[in-house]
Amino acid sequence: xxxxxxxxxxxxxxxxxxxxxxxxxxxxxxxxxxxxxxxxxxxxxxxxxxxxxxxxxxxxxxxxxxxxxxxxxxxxxxxxxxxxxxxxxxxxxxxxxxxxxxxxxxxxxxxxxxxxxxxxxxxxxxxxxxxxxxxxxxxxxxxxxxxxxxxxxxxxxxxxxxxxxxxxxxxxxxxxxxxxxxxxxxxxxxxxxxxxxxxxxxxxxxxxxxxxxxxxxxxxxxxxxxxxxxxxxxxxxxxxxxxxxxxxxxxxxxxxxxxxxxxxxxxxxxxxxxxxxxxxxxxxxxxxxx
Length: 290
Hints:
Layout: E1 5-10, E2 13-19, E3 26-33, E4 35-44, E5 55-60, E6 77-78, E7 85-93, E8 99-108, H1 116-134, H2 139-199, H3 203-209, H4 216-287
Antiparallel strand pairs: 1-2, 2-3, 3-4, 4-5, 4-6, 5-7, 7-8
Helix pairs in contact: 2-3, 2-4
């Protein structure tokens, strides 16, 4: 049983965090000193990559706040305070391997924002716990268990995301197609007004041709902008859909690889057992020969 203890310096004073035994996909820390209660730490996906489980998340309380809600009286609190606190922190690495920290929704059980000193204390404790788990030898097992836990929900989300972005791309493509005839019509109207003005100048026609809100010139400028903007936005939505689909495919491939590995492992164990049984039977037969 792993009972690693951390001494964390915080604005509220020293906090002692003791890691309990691994609970399948999480480590729960018992807090003492300037802060009392528990912190739940588990694996999670990278913030920019839904299919890459390389990050660690800590939640205030004894449970994974993204799956369960801890009772108010089970939330951690300062040793000299009466308010329990909710919140979480994610630790991951950036593209060059530097550690990055994201802090989410620090608040009291009643929904009030903590003071800056208390927020700094909560953040320091959460970060220390995530850093400890990130360096544990059993981190790969924690991340694998977390991937298995979250994959079904992530696949549902990514399926929705793919469909949503595809629908948005189609909508923007329709807008881009509509902008082309609208631009041609606006340009034709502007030239008609320009010919009228040349043949018979009038202040009203000058207002129609000038660049101001509601004029033909402004309409032409807007229609010239709409087409390229909607085409670019549609391409971006297509890329979002492609990425969501690729991440879903990656998660499925990882799940299949785990299933194949388990099946291969089970087959190897069965084969070893059969071999041992056959060897035992041969030895027994040899010993019983006259």
